[in-house]
Amino acid sequence: MKQQNVTAAERIKSFTYLLVFSFAVWLALTSTVEIQEIGVGIAVCVVVALWLSSYYLRLGLPPLSAKRVVFFCVYLGVLGGEILKANLDVAYRVIHPKMPINPGVVVIKTALKSDIAKMALANSITLTPGTFTLDIIGDNLLIHWINVQVEEVEDATEAIGERFEKYLRVIFE
Questions:
Q1: Per residue in 26-66, pLDDT tens?
Q2: Fewest CB within a 10 Å sphere: which of 48, 146, 158, 167?
Q3: Residue 99 burial (C-beta neighbours within 10 Å; 0-12, 13-18, 19+)
């Protein structure tokens, strides 16, 4: 974990965003607007936000901002859509009589600089069926792909990584 000088404004901002996010999750999980549920939710979320904001700031992650939160929500939707598409593609390959696969390992290059951003990209790729991140070496990711369509680094980067990376750039950098 990285130790950094954090201003009071950054601490307040991180606490506020974590509080709002955790309260939104609380409301989604409880599905009620009764006063006692709201009161308990606010109390629990204040404690959670106080506790997690200090950990969040020590990780060396970029400060929370409304733009990052919005891009994260959009990113989750894109990730969900890509997982759905990949599941349907793999299911087709499983039930197709001739199993049209062309497995192989390709290299993609990332412009992401922080380790956590690279890890998020690697995990996003691994979560989509048909691809698996084998290793991260510097700015390159080794990907096992169930149906290699392109082998050039630039083309593979565009086909596999760019759909996630454009959002992760905004979220983490």
A1: 988 988 888 999 999 999 999 988 888 877 777 767 776 78
A2: 158
A3: exposed
